[in-house]
Amino acid sequence: xxxxxxxxxxxxxxxxxxxxxxxxxxxxxxxxxxxxxxxxxxxxxxxxxxxxxxxxxxxxxxxxxxxxxxxxxxxxxxxxxxxxxxxxxxxxxxxxxxxxxxxxxxxxxxxxxxxxxxxxxxxxxxxxxxxxxxxxxxxxxxxxxxxxxxxxxxxxxxxxxxxxxxxxxxxxxxxxxxxxxxxxxxxxxxxxxxxxxxxxxxxxxxxxxxxxxxxxxxxxxxxx
Amino acid sequence: xxxxxxxxxxxxxxxxxxxxxxxxxxxxxxxxxxxxxxxxxxxxxxxxxxxxxxxxxxxxxxxxxxxxxxxxxxxxxxxxxxxxxxxxxxxxxxxxxxxxxxxxxxxxxxxxxxxxxxxxxxxxxxxxxxxxxxxxxxxxxxxxxxxxxxxxxxxxxxxxxxxxxxxxxxxxxxxxxxxxxxxxxxxxxxxxxxxxxxxxxxxxxxxxxxxxxxxxxxxxxxxx
DNA sequence: ACCTGAACACCGTTCAAGT
DNA sequence: ACCTGAACACCGTTCAAGT
Lengths: 224, 224
Description:
The structure is a homodimer. Chain A is an all-alpha fold.
């Protein structure tokens, strides 16, 4: 928006998503990226002054997409709920997007606007600015954390399976056997009851989001 | 506990904390670590098979410390509140501890035990295992995110000041000027009202924690 | 304006060889 | 059991030089 993308600048961003999908953010390198585009590594530096700034541009692309996908509807609670669900859906469209947003301080144009949109949903509520800001950051962090955990779980899972041909659940249970059962009794029970398969599901996401929104609601009620 | 630390193994861990405090987790390298201890880089690999496993050991040290600092007292709400506050306090004792815990899947002994301890606080509540687990993960993630944000803010701040001799607040306001004011009106108002100085304070931490706990409370009430 | 080759100053990790 | 030197296969980034 504030800067028209040249063909090649867009090309770098496009190839970056491809590389992130292939190798993940840990193994992302400027050399591999250049290779994918068909140029030499130093050429990228003509478009982005550093890897950091490239990542920021990627993060901002995601933020912009989230912003575009958001449409206010219903009361503040329904709005925040929809915003969070929409944000998660958009994050899932881009590889490693949660990491990118986490690594970027929210001082980019579209990221700021996204936060502003979230803030607008609770603007009329009888809360202090401090509260409003803090609560919105909590909701956004919740969505990001959820995606981060999901990503990490998938990583360890595929890594484990390619190495030992064991599922993560099997391995977890094996780990538990080495720890005195009484010391982790509750978590042990949960895992043997098949809780593992539920981690990261839509239901879990909505359930965690719900306590956040109910918590905010209580604060609203308390101060009106 | 399950493995007696040799003098040098403890020495590696000790030096690791020193290096993390000096350089941060991004610039942590095995070579610098070796240098700090007074050995060659490959020697570290006798104690820890990889950088990853060294980080896991560090994370587990933090988890153990949190566990030791926790003492159940009061009802479930007071307990969770104290646990979160204690966890934050312990995280602040170690440099980059939040990053270390975030990077580590909770499958280490002491980390598991820590989660179990949190779970114990809400064990008697009339909630499903799924809910209990999810809510506790939310609380733990909240504490970690809060520390992460704080760390990131400090990083950018010192980086910015050494480069441009500007404070983060000045720079943020400058960024705002480049964005159409109407599009970020709320966040703009908040920043000009001095909200910036409040980010990351104890008060903010407790305020966010509170909506989580109240949210859980509502769920308890709803299902009893 | 856009791209390259060569180079700098680093990485994590392996491994034969030393004591 | 513990440590080293040398080496492998990488990094991000700079910069003079090309077109």
